[in-house]
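Dear H.,

Thanks for agreeing to be a second pair of eyes. The structure we're designing against is below in token form, covering all 77 positions.
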């Protein structure tokens, strides 16, 4: 499965430092993002190796939750 392969490869890399960004500042940046079309934030993510997907209407709370999750991850030993 592609996802397993990607996760295995990423688990070997050191975790990059996550900047401390206050939630409200992050929200301000989201609201001014160049990917906002017609008031809706469009987000590009990778579904697999070489498989970029454009997703419209990603809820702000979902992005904040993802940021919290990434910030909580431990660096590999």
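And this is the sequence the design step returned. I haven't edited it by hand at all.
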């Amino acid at each position: 499965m592609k996802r397993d392969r990607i996760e295995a490869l990423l688990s070997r890399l050191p975790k990059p430092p996550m900047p401390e960004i206050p939630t409200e500042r992050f929200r301000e940046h989201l609201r001014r993002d160049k990917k906002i079309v017609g008031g809706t934030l469009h987000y590009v993510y990778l579904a697999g190796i070489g498989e970029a997907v454009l997703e419209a209407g990603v809820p702000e709370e979902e992005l904040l939750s993802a940021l919290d999750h990434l910030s909580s991850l431990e660096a590999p030993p």
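Two observations from my side: Residues 2-72 form one domain. The chain has a mean pLDDT of 82.

Warmly,
E.
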